[in-house]
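request received
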Amino acid sequence: MIHCYKFDDKNIVLDVFSGSIHMVDEVAYDIIQMYEDHTREQIVADITSKHNVTEAEVDECLKDIEDLKEAGKLFAPDKFENISYDLKKRKWTLKALCLHVAHTCNLNCSYCFAAQGNFHGERGLMSFETGKRAIDFLIENSGYHKNLDIDFFGGEPLMNWEVVKKLVLYARSIEKDAGKNIRFTLTTNGINIDDDVIDFCNKEMHNVVLSLDGRKETNDRFRVDYKGNGSYDVIVPKFKKFVEARGNKSYYMRGTYTHFNTDFVEDIKHMADLGFKELSMEPVVTSPDSPSFLTEEDLPVLMQQYEDLAHEMIKRNKEGNGFTFYHYMLDLTCGPCIYKRISGCGAGTEYIAVTPWGDIYPCHQFVGDEKMKLGDIFNGFTDHGKEVSRDFAQVNCYTREGCKDCWAKLYCSGGCAANAYHSGGDIKEIYDYGCKLFRKRIECALAVRLSDLKEDDIYVPDADAESVD
Amino acid sequence: MSRIVTINTRDLDKSAKEGGCGECQTSCQSACKTSCGVANQACEKKS
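response:
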């Protein structure tokens, strides 16, 4: 399977099952698209009439295509369906916790998928004992995994900061003996950031996710306190101080865009202009009756925005003032293996969310949905939870009917189960709106990457024996 | 290959033969939290 598209002056051919990327001229672009279902004579006739090329030149291009096919870099067959089958049978062990240390929040953002932090349930803070048990549960059930991930999430985790610190120190005290390496992350709205938070996080947190929606008017439309006051003026100076002190450690400035700011690239540019360089911006996840809901009419606007973002990034990269956009990060040679590309986020199998009371859900987006509850950290998975977990283990880009003919399936592994569930009622479905945005993002991500090629980015056939794997 | 420039990319077929080590970061722990993308995840063996 191939995917061919144009971006500015680039003709890009993506070979789905080898993961290869080709930049081609107009002649090769047309020949490659005809190659599989036209004879040589048909191709020669069509191409020589359309382009100013000779039959010999068409034959030369056909030979190059044959060589790439032989090298497994073009029209590669799909050899991975059996991996999908193996993954379904695999005995999964835990790897990551989304630890909901606070089901409460000091902001009152009406678009929040966590319903202002309480996930449609009681408000509450996780006790140290419950958090400690959650960490023990992760380690006990982590099997062969050495690297474990724990994200402090909420609600707003800094509303339970002393417990967060104690839990990190507890985990650090046992990880070596357990043969584990725990990487912590923290997602915060920034309100409670102070010197203690900055110092501790910069020492212990592998990554921090800082929530800012962009321009003041965008951010303060939703990200307000319980009196309705916008948070921008409070959080931006704190985020600046935090990031400055963070040095080389990673962070993400993460925003959400909604129906009200479909010009979200202006918000990303604003964040970059504030000096933040590691940026993320996600489409809102909300119900269709919410005024924030992204509509079908918004879709072409959003598609154009992703192109505009790519252009802006290419421009700023050339000016030496570039920034990173989470969804445009593509490490072509050191990116994920095929197992990761098929298995995806691991929700419900490797990745679980734990509430302040110790209840377990497949991920943070399912918290509060009793049908999706897997069990609790004190008694383990229930029989029902084991069934739900098995359902999650069955779902990937090969089992979802909607992914069958999609060229992007090995970039998203079939998409977010929660998005599918909340839009169509079934984790085995796809969230088509999100798929359209995702495909656009990958096209743009590649365009940004291909705008800055170095000599050693180019494949040389003779050097194949030493090529990257 | 004057008309085709091929970019170096990870050989997915070879990665299938090697097997997945399962040590890379869980994708939703990085920045998204509301979507699924694995293309931007770094390989633990290669990084």
